[in-house]
Amino acid sequence: MARADKPEWLAAAEGVRTQVAQRIGSKSREIAFTKNTTEGLNLIAQGYPWEDGDNMVIDDQEHPVNSVPWLHLRQRGVDVRVAPTQDRRVTVDAIWSRVDAHTRVIAVSYVQYSTGVRTDLQTLGERCRAHGIHLVVDGIQGVGLLPIDVEHWGISALSCGAYKALHGPLGLGFLYVAPQLLERLRPAHLGRSE
């Protein structure tokens, strides 16, 4: 029997989804709840339709949360390229030096966990958008502390746990996915609800 009003828990969830979307410059329908940053990044890495000859780029300063899901793709034949940093700084040019016509994804952290250095997401996102490359961001060190606009900056996906600057509980996070990437993803987990 359907009720006209939404259950309280559903209204609360939609309210949180709207707040997250406003904070990062997206629409609420582009936000999914996850357990943490790792789960969101894995949904993208494992759900992307990789083909023979495809590659993706990370940098050599990434936290294991944002390197292991991508490095694991080597077992599936994806060429995972690691851009070197200079003085522990991630630069757009260093990342771009690993890009070619077969690059499908670039994955970086908004803020490096070990140094606090910010990645220039706006410049990197503009380049990615111009070349049809998906920019995937680990946002946990920056979201809630620094401004971000996923839509205008050309970010295709952003994964973030809630327990740092968002002051949420452990075991809760979110994943933003742009419509252009969402339509390409395959479900990483299948099942049906009972």
Could you explain how this protein is built, in words?
The chain is an alpha/beta fold. It contains seven helices and seven strands; from the N terminus they run H-E-H-E-H-E-H-E-H-E-H-E-E-H. The protein has helices spanning 8-24, 37-47, 68-71, 92-96, 121-131, 150-153, 179-182, and strands at 31-34, 55-59, 79-83, 103-109, 134-138, 157-161, 173-177. Helix 6 (150-153) links the parallel strand 5 and strand 6. The relative contact order is 0.19.
Helices and strands in order:
Layout: H1 8-24, E1 31-34, H2 37-47, E2 55-59, H3 68-71, E3 79-83, H4 92-96, E4 103-109, H5 121-131, E5 134-138, H6 150-153, E6 157-161, E7 173-177, H7 179-182
Count of discrete alpha- or pi-helical segments spanning 4 or more residues: 7
What is the overall silhouette?
A: globular
User: From the alpha-carbon coordinates, what is the Rg to the nearest angstrom?
Assistant: 17 Å
Poorly predicted spans: none
**Mean pLDDT figure:** 93
Main sheet: strands, sense, barrel: 7 strands, mixed
Distance between the termini: 16 Å
Portion of residues within helices: 25-40%
